[in-house]
Amino acid sequence: MLIRIRRGWELPESAATPESVVLGRRAALGGALGAGAAVAGLAGPAWAQVAAPAMRNPRFQPGREVTPERDATSYNNYYEFGTSKTVTPAANRLKVAPWTIKFDGLVAQPRELGLEDLLKQVNLEERVLRHRCVEAWAMTVPWTGFPMSELVRLAQPRPEAKFVVFETAAQRDTMPGLRQAWYPWPYSDGCSVAEARNEMAFIATGMYGKPLPPQNGAPIRALFPWKYGFKAPKSIVRVTFQAEQPVGYWEKLQASEYGFWANVNPEVAHPRWSQASERLLGSNERVPTRIYNGYGEFVAPLYANMQNERIWY
Ligand code: MTE
């Protein structure tokens, strides 16, 4: 049986936000879904009704202006749809329904869950988070989703499981990038089970109060706000628990430049460029980069005994 426990900050939305704002957001959401449905000639996928919006969790204060939505959704890395930053037209072909996620490896019982089913078993919240690409650009986004620890709970890993791998969609008919056979498709990356259980690790299903657009990883992606963005797989189809440390897409391509832990550190340069500062999408302002992307208070203890390992890139 599923028991939902409200956290302290989870007031009913009507108690926290003026009703006109709530209704405005719902209308906007309805409009967005409606527009999509008109193009497809179908009702939107059922999970899209529940993927966003949600109450904002005030525990994570961004300390920066939210990036304008048009900037965060039009400057992307999604190599399956091409290597440029302008992948939106190509990514719109991504087939997002039906969507299932397989849980396997060292779990109590391997299984496959439909996205709609999965979303019924978690509590959605909104978090405004900083997102820092290894290429030294950054954005601040209101994401809708749920703590990754909830996904771990649903998967029921066995005690021998030490790492999690997120494998992402490989749709031959919609993703032209897959024809570039020298890339190690499907895109995947992972983390330790301890990291996945950390409160900062997040699974996003929406942004700006709407379901995730394809170019940002529809319908479901991972976020590790204290790591470089390449650790945040988009369009997840499989979650595997294992004993060995996995090798992700970028590490397979260029291990000397992209490591497993990839925590943000302004003092550890990428072999080809500095990480001391970052460019904010939208304003183009350059600001100093912060260690763990400013989330050290939440995540630094994860690495307390690992200072001799390559935890920075
Ligand atoms: N996930 C998949 N499946 N394919 C990708 O090419 N690029 C990664 C990550 N997740 C990528 C991916 C990189 S390099 C970054 S910086 C972020 O997604 C970018 O996320 P955004 O476009 O939402 O900002």
Summarize the structure.
The protein is of the alpha+beta class and 313 residues long.
Please give a structural write-up.
The protein is of the alpha+beta class and 313 residues long. It has one domain (29-303): Oxidoreductase, molybdopterin-binding domain (Sulfite Oxidase, Chain A, domain 2, Alpha-Beta Complex), CATH 3.90.420. It has nine helices and twelve strands. It has helices at 13-16, 19-40, 69-72, 88-91, 115-120, 148-155, 193-197, 249-253, 296-299, and strands spanning 100-105, 111-114, 125-132, 137-147, 163-168, 188-192, 202-207, 210-211, 221-223, 236-242, 277-280, 286-288. Strands 3, 4, 7, 8, 9, 11 and 12 form a seven-stranded mixed sheet that branches. A five-stranded mixed sheet has the order 2-1-10-5-6. Strand 1 and strand 2 (111-114) form a beta hairpin. The longest helix has 22 residues, at 19-40. 39% of the residues are buried. The chain binds ligand MTE.
Comma- or semicolon-separated keywords:
Sulfite Oxidase, Chain A, domain 2; globular; binds ligand MTE; 5-stranded mixed β-sheet; 313 residues; 7-stranded mixed β-sheet; alpha+beta
CATH superfamily: Oxidoreductase, molybdopterin-binding domain
DSSP summary: helix tally: 9
Total count of strands: 12
Tell me the domain tally: 1
Structural class: alpha+beta
The global form is globular
Helix percentage range: 10-25%
Order of helices and strands: HHHHEEHEEHEEHEEEEHEEH
CA radius of gyration: 19 Å
* Annotated CATH architecture: Alpha-Beta Complex
Main β sheet profile: 7 strands, mixed
- What would the average pLDDT be, to the nearest integer? 90
Low-confidence stretches: 12-41
Domain Oxidoreductase molybdopterin-binding: 94-250
InterPro entries: OxRdtase_Mopterin-bd_dom, OxRdtase_Mopterin-bd_sf, TAT_signal
GO molecular function: oxidoreductase activity
EC number: 1.8.5.-
